[in-house]
User: What shape does this take?
Amino acid sequence: MDEKQRTRGLRRYRWALVPAIILLIGYLLPEQLHIPVEDAQAHDWNHDTFWYAPWGRSGVHKGIDIFAPAGQSVRAATGGIVIYRGSFGIGGRVVVILGPRWRVHYYAHLAEFAPDAGIFVGGGDTLGTVGTSGNAAGKAPHLHYSILTLIPYPWRWDASPQGWKKMFYLDPSIRLLSIGTRAKAPTGRAG
Ligand SMILES: [Zn+2]
Assistant: This one.
């Protein structure tokens, strides 16, 4: 291999590093979750409805429903980039945000969108209000909240209905319930 060939090889290698670095940066961004409905607490959602089946037209419930009075603010669980805001099938009025760690946060059944919401949102920013749009019509107002990971977790695949999709859907309940635990941790530390 002469000098020229070696440089060319090195250059190609460097270009391959760019997507790897971007992937890594997205993965390392800290993910600090907020409960995505203003004033909501752990008892406002059923902790066991993630992956509940049979569940309407989607077959399996790939998220949780946080019940709240209609018009209550829906908040971004994490900061990120709004990749979709509009009407989308059974979700009704939805907001889709790409957040840290290549996770997509899906907020459905909104009544209205926050009029001043931009493309970039911070964690806790108002996205709109709780409602009954989409297939929540006629039901108690709630926010349907799902977390999808773009990087699949193959070890989560199991024998449950649509079990292979568990590689891509994370249980929001576990993550939201751990907020309180994490906040309490420092006080438990000695000194
Ligand atoms: Zn739901």
